Amino acid sequence: MSHTPSEKILIIGFGPVAASLVEGLLPGVSAGQIELTVLGAEPQPAYNRVLLAEVAVGSTRTEHLMLSDLNRLRDAGVRVLSGCTATRVDRARRKVHLDTGEPLSYDRLIFATGARAMIPSLHGVNFDPHTEPDLPEGVLALRTLEDALSLQKVLARRGRVLILGGGILGLEAALAMAAAGHTPVLIHHGPAPLGRMMDADGGRLLLRQLSEAGVEVHSQVRATGVRLNENGFAALGTETHGEITGDALLISTGVRARTELAAGCGLEVGRGIKTDEYLCADAEHRIFALGDCAEVAGTAPAGLLAPGWAQAGWLANYLLTHRAPRPDRAPEPQSALTPPPPFTASQVLMLKGQGLELTAAGDIDAPLFAEDGRDVMVFADPSRGCYLKLVTRDSVALGFVALGLPRTSAELVLAFERGAALPEDRSLLLRLDDPGLPEPTAAAADEDTLCRCSGATYGDVAHAVSEGCETVAEVGESCRAGTGCGGCREKIEQMLQHASVLL
Amino acid sequence: MSHSTSPTDTHCPYCALQCGISLTPTPGPEAATPVALQGRNFETNGGALCRKGYSAAELLAHPERLSAPLARQADGSFAAVDWDEALDLVAHKVRALQASHGPDSVAVFGAGGLTNEKAYQLGKFARLALGTSRIDYNGRFCMSSAAAATNRAFGLDRGLPFPLRDLDSAALILMLGSNVAETMPPFVRHLDGAREAGGLIVVDPRRSATAQLSENGAGWHLQPTPGSDLPLLLALSHVLLTENLADTRYLEERTTGLAALRTSLNAWWPERVATLTGVPAAQIRRTARALAAGAERAKQGGAPVFILTGRGVEQHENGTDTVTAAINLALLLGLPGTRAGGYGTITGQGNGQGGREHGQKCDQLPGYRKISDPAHRAHVAAVWGVTPEQIPGPGLPATELLRTLGTPGGSRMLLVHGSNPVISAPDAGNVLRALRRLDFLVVCDFFLSETAAEADIVLPVLQWAEEEGTMTNLEGRVLRRRAALTAPAGARSELWIMSQLAERLDAPGHFSDDPREVFDELRRASAGGLADYSGVSWSAVQSGQPVYWPCPTGGDPGGTPRLFLDRFAHPDGKARLIPVTAHGATEAVDANQRLWLITGRLLEHYQSGVQTRRVAQLQAAADQGLLEIHPSTARAHGIIDGQPVRVSNDRGAVTARARFSPELRLDTVFLPFHFPGENNANLLTRDDVDPHSAMPEFKNAAVRLTPLESRE
Lengths: 503, 712
Description:
Chain A is an alpha/beta fold. Chain A has helices at about 15-30, 50-55, 70-75, 145-155, 170-180, 200-210, 260-265, 305-320, 405-420, 425-430, 460-465, 470-480, 490-500; strands spanning about 5-10, 35-40, 80, 85-90, 95-100, 105, 110, 115, 140, 160-165, 185, 215-220, 225-230, 230-240, 245, 250, 255, 275, 285-290, 295, 350, 360, 375-380, 385-395, 395-405. In chain B, strand 14 (about 365) and strand 15 (about 370) form a beta hairpin.
């Protein structure tokens, strides 16, 4: 009996995307097909960074962030090395060197190194983009559990926290703090938060809603540096608004892919580790990259979870069904894989701040009368907190921003991601959020069914009433209406009442 | 007016609600039906009936009723033959095929509509008389996912582990993928309490008749995109855990697996799930909080809270995991096995409950025993008077059994009882081709169904009002089916057919044709099993006294109306929280196949329509499968109301007239599955199956639409 030897797969990084990949590879591990090792720099396994602000304000506990169950993985046979950093990849010998312990060998290697907070150029802050940020006391990013715990301490002192950056994460952090009774200050450089994903009118409404939610907002700010005192952070210096004082500065100005390890072993690096559309980073089909560290087919990493998770699902299946390359055999061309994985770089933001319903997707930068084949639709009802701008081409959404329209936005996200045609009458989308569902307006005709269960029509019931039936039960005996589920009894009662009025 | 004969109390032939009816013989040959049928005051229906029930007697003396065995002739036509000739031929074919191709060359396909006695006997007949492992049944297309999920969570599968009347007083009912207002209308009476309390929450991609019951303050409707029920349920559980709304004491005392479940749920926050389901995050939170508040009140003596699932969430390739997610939600709320509420699945077919307990499943022996367990085999072998070695091992589940017919390794002869897979099986075009590959097909039916029309031998059998026996309804209550009429000459009971064939095949064991004797044997065979009927007395069932299984000998003669009050059925007495996750289970819609097709039922019809399509008033109300489509979607496809439309995908094509319905989602169309030929919705469905239950994917197929020229 021939026994296929197992192969060694090594994953560098243990964030949410790596966790999903590990999950997908488990069948191969249990089947003895794969020896899987996961290397995580942080002490704990994968967790959900999306909820770090909630942890900082105390509305969520750490256990609600955890995305991997270490005991379960170890029982399944996965080797998990936590608190351990890869220092160098030796592609010739297929080994990964570590900061502690023996080097690890691999047959295939996966980069899931993620991204680190991008620190802007500010006086008083070291911003070397190629190392983990080393920030002064009171200045922090919100990227790790450790960051969240630092922020928690500041908030416990009821400190005034400045948030620099008007992206989705900055907004969510500000709203989480405000909801917990703190007084966050959101500072950003555009006219409204969310940059190009928001337009002027939507932006105005958003600013109003943020302010109503208890967030102090400073727009069009040019930050220049930080002033520190003996306790650490004291104020943010700006070119436009003078000095803005606070007890801590939360930097939320985006992220940058961790690519140094890949660059160090000769892989091509741009805005991320460069891969083809199949996530493959080398000619031998031995090295792959995915998630926030990967530039897939020329598209910059999205910085969002959904695309990374889609990549992880696809890659797990690929690794399970395609064996590692062997020196004696030419690699099979990736182009033979059909169809190519449908990784969209779709930018969909849905604000996770309760009470403020905001969804933004794609490109909405178009004038109302675009006259270039694009159609623009705008709906605004600022007094109710509702706004929608939708840009389409051939009825397919190119982008939209929606405020205060939860059902409409959920449906638009589905259509946007699928590239599905929207209804010709776009106002139909708005009616999805109409709490009063359409009621039949036309008066019922004699041949219309009144009682679905028995099939009795309005005419049958009218006849029964005209023959002298005075109760629902009598009508039921006469024509069976109302004797099934009973859902139409009310309508029969109305007809009986109507008849007695006429008498 | 006086009748010479008194009325016979029995139950409606159709769905698992098994509404009480009484039949009174009508005098004289000029009567439209041989009996007059009336609703009877019984707990599930309170005297009410739906149109299907009212008109059921019309089939008893129907002109198309089969009255003699039919044998296929050389020219392809059928000719009436006598019973001996037909049965000899069947036995001869069994022997000849098994001699050259082995015992598994003959297979059996049963049904969830058969009485307990027939279902039991069919399993025994397959294993002993035919010696084949290849038996499965249409319940695989019905209850298998819920059964697999409840077995792994609770250690036992009874559709409703509580009496239906418990729903009457509920404050909240979360109902997923079930359109009872059309499929079993008298059920709706049991929702009145929850509706009055404003607590009927319906999850359905359509604004179905049941979803409409939640309007005007009676509750609310969540309308997810087809196939996304699983992530929706994960998000509801996520909210319970992250907002600390779960019942921690209950979880500690009565369940295991919380830590792993918690980790698995962390990834399903409401905003993420909103983008997968189309259900707003706020609505998800509101629903979870309402459930938690309701459960809390229920535990302090308030009205109970229930979670119910139907085929809409179960008939998927992730059906078992979806039901597991619903059960996890119920467990997090601390409901199952308490008087504060619980989880249940709404069984569909008339005897869908009893039919799944007594050995028609390929991996199962009577009493919900496992065919692979040596102790279980030994018990059943002793009752059957054979050695355990004489009982074959596990066979193939329905979809695989059908798909492999006439292929190398597949069976070459099939006996079908009470089922019409040409209409009801997924990817029906493929099923028809498979049946045509067979060497020999035998169908037992009382009408020439679409499947019978393909047969080599058709054996005419009794209808519901002509036979004695027991049925087990959706609450696990054992009911008496009674004969009110003598069967027409020429028709025979399936118990008689099996006993005749067993004799011709020199089968070991005894095959009685008397329902009461078979019931007594069933009781012995089920004794000590999960579905224990040993203490169910014929006289109690006869008198209409409530008896719920499990009902072991020497226990309460009423059995167990409410399960799990002290412990769950796993050895440690605890329920299992099993982490499940959602993968991309939906068939991708793309530029070529832009829309999702979901399938379902109409009020007027039952299952494959063999019976209801022959009832004039039902057929007049719904004579074909109409394609329900949102007017806006129709406009985009150039379709007008009433226009014939070709609905197609890689598996097949269906023609149906469009019916405008704003109750549909824009991305989804609906077809009922009761109709034959080019109107058969299952030509489009997928035979991809659930890894745990082998349930096929009925509710999620990508399709394209082409308007056809109006033929008017």
